[in-house]
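ok posting inputs for the S-adenosyl-L-homocysteine job
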Amino acid sequence: MAECTDPHGDGLVEDIPELSDGDDDVDDDEEQWQWMEEEDSQPVTCLFCDRLLSTVPATLQHCTAEHQVNLVDVVRKHSLGDYGYIKMINFIRSTKCSSSCLMGLPDGPLPWESEDFLRPVLQDDPLLQIDLEELCDSEGTCSSTCSSSRAESYDVLLHRSQAAEERARCSEEALARAMEDLHKLKLLAQGLVLNAETSKPGNLGTVAELREDEDEAYFSSYGHYGIHEEMLKDKVRTESYRDFMYSNGEMFRDKVVLDVGCGTGILSMFAARAGAKKVIAVDQSSIIYQAMDIVRSNQLEDKITLIKGRIEDVSLPVEKVDIIISEWMGYFLLFESMLDSVLYARDLYLADGGSVYPDLCNISLTAVGDELKHQDRIAFWDDVYGFNMACMKKAVVPEAVVEVVKADTLISEPAVIQTFDCNSVSLSELEFAADFSLKMTNTTNCTAIVGYFDIFFDKGCSNKVMFSTGPHVTKTHWKQTVFLLEKPVPVQAGEELEGKITVRKNKKDPRSLFVTLNIRERKQTYSLQ
Ligand code: SAH
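and the output
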């Protein structure tokens, strides 16, 4: 039995029947109808009248005989996938759409496109629990022998291509919505930063509401495929996770693994292939619906259980797990604060002797001397078409910049300013202050300090794996984080440039960070948004 969780977004864990391996011999068909008979002991309400039928197959036959609706034909006609089918059933039930209305739908957008129709109208509706692929396969033998004319296959192809176009249109709309959300989130964060020091207790209600909106925007940004494509294509990142799991198979064999924030399910599938007995994959973003399809397409549904929800809110089907894997790292390591959620999962679910991976992380700083860039970003404002806009520097400098730093602009050796062991670090330690000392390699002006992090898969590994997001090595999607100095600091080769860094969360938007640098008596606070 494979467990698939919450295709309807209502937080309920549901069991769905095990899927076939694709063999469509007679035995399999018989088995399929058997499970339908067994599982459907609960009566089924017809889609178009009030009749209660004893089983799903009886309901399908009834719909064909009494209402002239063959659901399998409808599914094929509109090229519906699992979610399209679920939405159609809920659409019919909620709108009381008649059989003639359903059969007479014009070409073009389907009336059940809205995600709202993922929500079941009837509780435990047996029609939502059937396995669409198997159902269509079992009927497929019949329809293909009955009607295999070329005209029909042309129609099917036409419908498929129309459905594909429709899906592309929906994706474009989703992308536009995600961009809008990101934009709103940025404006919101800017407002919060600007008001950080001046808030009144009376504003707390609004702040809590805003925080909820921000969280919604955060998860909705992960609903779009683009961000996952970028992460998956980051080979340094993804191959490190893969190599860690594949080359330490003995650690995964027969273990229960929790994947916090599974996204497309890539880490869960690595873990399953590495030998895990069971993988529980949790994500609050709607990307998990894709992960459900992806896991099935790779025949891993009996190993991987997907659960939609925040890790802080869901209840897992096991009490403890042996290993927690997660790719939680944000810019400058801590931006996004997703490590908080991993620590929550660790404290609640990790069995004694278990481990979180990656387990060790470093944050490092190094000095940059890039006068051209400094002029372009800072001195630029001194004379803009003959006007003095120097006041703009006060807005430019405090925003840390995420960009790739050229290795030939580095003017010091790097210094590790903080190390975390994810198996023991506590939430409060994620805000910290540290003194640092950068050994200069050039005599020049220091124009910026750059920050980055390194990640280690270390504890108990026979094959240790690490990767760096530093400026000396292959770039990653995290790039580096640059803190511009308003006034460049002259330095000598061999000298130690001393400083102090403070990292803390923005209390009004805990997913963003404030970083304060004290260098040569100058103090500057940067926000990372
Ligand atoms: N593991 C995937 C995705 C990493 S991105 C990969 O490596 O490609 C981080 C994911 O964590 C996002 O999909 C986001 O929605 C999810 N996430 C972040 N915080 C979460 C939380 N508290 N509960 C559940 N999912 C979370």
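notes: Residues 168 and 255 are 39 Å apart (CA to CA). The first strand starts at residue 3 and ends at 5.
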